[in-house]
Design brief:
The protein is mainly α. It has one domain. The chain is built from 3 helices and no strands. It has helices at about 25-35, 40-50, 60-70. Helix 2 (about 40-50) packs parallel to helix 3 (about 60-70). It is globular, with a radius of gyration of 11 Å.
């Protein structure tokens, strides 16, 4: 799969989130370059068709992303 199409505006990718995990670089490789469709931020942005992703949503929080999408529909 190609790199995530949301990299240019992704606060996680550009280290603009508070409390960035120590494993952020590993997570970027995994979620932004290898398993894009597994990223909670990608899923939220793609399905909500918005540029506004919750600032506290981490790439590994797919369940949280799903809850946010279900609750906001």
């Amino acid at each position: 799969m190609a790199d995530c199409r949301y990299i240019p505006e992704c606060d996680f990718y550009h280290d603009r989130l508070d409390g960035m995990p120590a494993t952020a670089e590993f997570m970027k490789t995994l979620f932004c370059h290898k398993q894009v469709e597994s990223c909670a931020r990608y899923l939220y942005q793609y399905h909500k068709e918005t540029d506004e992703v919750p600032r506290d949503l981490m790439p590994y929080e797919k369940d949280k992303a799903q809850q946010l999408m279900d609750g906001a529909s």
